[in-house]
Backbone:
C-alpha cells in the first residue's frame, strides 16, 4: 500500500487572490468511504474545552472552509473552523505551555462504525494551526453526555497518535483499529485551529434497532448500505443517492458526464445484509434537464456477479419521485441500478426487511466489532 501523504510546517501568509491556490492536499485511499461525521447523518461536536476564536460546530460543516481576509470581530480574525486561544505557561519563568497541555473537542459520529481514515483539515490556518494532533475513539450506547464521555472509567482507543501536522493542508491519516466506535476525542497540541474534520469508514448499524423497525430502507447509509462501485462520479458522488433525506439541490444527488458512446451508467450497492426487498423509490429531484432517461434494477444474492432484473427498463421523469411496489419480495445482498444513457438520480430507496440469515450475520459482525 502506498504511504499516506503527510504535510508539516507553516503555509505562506495569504497574499491575495484564490486562498486555495497554495492549499496542500492529496488523494487519500479512504475518502471514497462515507463520512461517519456527516451532519446529515446526525453527527455533532458536543463539547470542547475552548472555542475562543471560532466555534467547534464549524468542524463538521459539509462545505469546504471559506476565507474572508476582511472579516474581523471583537475577538479578532473570524475563521471558518474551530480555533482556541493561545496557551501560556505557568508564569514569567515558564512562559511556554507544558508538553502535555492541549485542547480537545468531543465528536458524536452520525452513524457508528469502523473508522478507516481521517482528514484533519487546517485550510486557511496558515500560522495558527496546531503543532500536532491526536485522535481517540470510544463506543458508548445511547446518547451519552460530555460528562459521561469524560468519566475516568471510559476506555479510549488511539486512532491517531500525537503527530505533527501542516498548516493550510488536508492532513490525512489511515486508521486500522477494526472496532465499532460512536464518539471521537480530537486533540490539538498545544492549541490552534482546525477547519474541518472528516471521518471516513463503514457504518455498523445496531441490529436491535433494525429488528425493531422491521421494514426499513435497506440501502440507506445510516442502516449500513454502501456504494461499492459506480461507472462515473464526474459531477457528484454516487454515495449521495443513499444519503439521509430528500435531495435539496442538484449537486446533492448523482450526476454523470454526457456520454458520447452507446453505453450507459450504473451504480452497484451492497445492502445492510441479505434482505427481502418489497418496494423501490427512484428520485430525480432537482435533476431537470439532466435526469436519467430510463432505469433498470437488478439484484444479486451474495455478490457473485449473477444479476436478476427486478425492474425492467422504465422511463424516468425529471424532478420526480418514482415509486414501485414489486410483484413479490426479492431476496438479495446487492443491487445495481443502470441508467440510460447517462444523467443522474438524486436518491434510491429500497424498502424491505432482513432475512433470518441477514439478521444473524449483522448481529455477529456487530458483536465482533465490539458493539
Residues:
Amino acid at each position: 500500500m502506498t504511504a499516506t501523504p503527510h504535510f508539516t510546517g507553516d503555509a505562506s501568509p495569504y497574499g491575495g487572490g484564490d486562498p486555495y491556490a497554495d492549499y496542500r492536499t492529496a488523494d487519500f485511499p479512504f475518502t471514497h468511504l462515507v463520512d461517519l461525521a456527516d451532519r446529515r447523518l446526525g453527527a455533532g461536536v458536543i463539547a470542547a474545552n475552548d472555542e475562543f476564536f471560532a466555534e467547534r460546530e464549524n468542524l463538521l460543516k459539509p462545505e469546504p472552509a471559506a476565507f474572508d481576509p476582511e472579516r474581523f470581530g471583537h475577538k479578532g480574525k473570524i475563521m471558518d473552523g474551530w480555533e482556541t486561544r493561545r496557551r501560556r505557561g505557568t508564569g514569567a519563568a515558564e512562559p511556554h505551555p507544558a508538553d502535555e497541555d492541549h485542547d480537545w473537542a468531543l465528536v458524536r459520529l452520525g452513524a457508528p462504525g469502523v473508522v478507516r481514515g481521517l482528514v484533519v483539515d487546517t485550510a486557511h490556518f496558515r500560522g495558527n494551526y496546531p503543532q500536532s494532533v491526536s485522535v481517540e475513539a470510544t463506543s458508548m450506547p445511547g446518547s451519552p453526555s460530555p460528562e459521561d464521555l469524560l468519566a475516568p472509567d471510559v476506555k479510549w482507543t488511539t486512532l491517531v497518535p500525537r503527530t505533527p501536522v501542516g498548516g493550510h493542508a488536508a492532513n490525512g491519516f489511515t486508521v486500522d483499529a477494526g472496532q465499532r466506535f460512536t464518539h471521537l476525542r480530537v486533540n490539538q497540541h498545544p492549541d490552534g485551529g482546525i477547519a474541518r474534520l472528516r471521518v471516513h469508514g463503514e457504518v455498523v448499524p445496531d441490529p436491535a434497532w433494525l429488528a425493531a423497525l422491521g421494514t426499513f430502507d435497506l440501502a440507506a447509509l445510516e442502516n449500513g448500505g454502501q456504494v461499492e462501485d459506480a461507472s462515473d462520479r464526474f459531477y457528484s458522488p454516487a454515495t449521495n443517492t443513499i444519503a439521509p433525506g430528500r435531495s435539496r439541490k442538484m449537486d446533492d444527488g448523482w450526476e454523470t458526464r454526457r456520454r458520447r458512446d452507446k453505453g450507459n451508467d450504473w451504480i452497484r450497492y451492497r445492502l445492510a445484509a441479505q434482505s427481502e426487498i418489497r418496494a423501490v423509490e427512484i428520485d430525480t429531484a432537482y435533476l431537470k434537464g439532466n435526469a436519467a432517461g430510463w432505469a433498470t434494477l437488478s439484484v444479486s444474492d451474495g455478490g457473485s456477479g449473477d444479476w436478476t432484473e427486478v425492474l425492467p427498463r422504465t422511463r424516468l421523469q425529471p424532478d420526480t419521485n418514482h415509486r414501485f411496489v414489486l410483484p413479490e419480495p426479492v431476496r438479495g445482498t446487492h443491487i445495481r441500478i443502470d441508467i440510460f444513457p447517462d444523467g443522474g438520480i438524486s436518491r434510491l430507496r429500497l424498502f424491505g426487511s432482513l432475512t433470518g440469515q441477514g439478521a444473524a450475520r449483522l448481529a455477529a459482525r456487530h458483536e465482533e466489532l465490539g458493539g
About this structure: The first helix runs from residue 146 to 149. The mean pLDDT is 95. The chain is about 5% helix and 40% strand. Helices lie at 146-149, 207-213, 356-368.
